[in-house]
Amino acid sequence: EDAWFIRHAMEILDGMPEPWDENAMGRPLKHPPKSLVLALLVKVKHRKTYRGTESYLREDDRYLKLGFTTPPGKSTLQEAMEKVPESYLEDVEQRLSERLKKRNNISL
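Below the sequence we write its predicted structure tokens.
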């Protein structure tokens, strides 16, 4: 189930704009914003804390599957949650829900 969730969430995120604008004057981004959003979706899906999500991503190098070159820390995940608009996460969740309904032949 995680593989399906991650694959489809990545496809959805690929077709969306960046979740937030970064100031070009600041330091370069260490982690791609869309990968951070994906990590946040995994956090919510598994009902984990930020520390628990960090550990989960480090297990078996899961962070590589989400598009990271190094695992994000709990503080990075917290900062990302503050930056990403709630409507952006809701949009991704809605699109994932539609795909899941379609996969399971559920119509409403």
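The chain has a mean pLDDT of 90.
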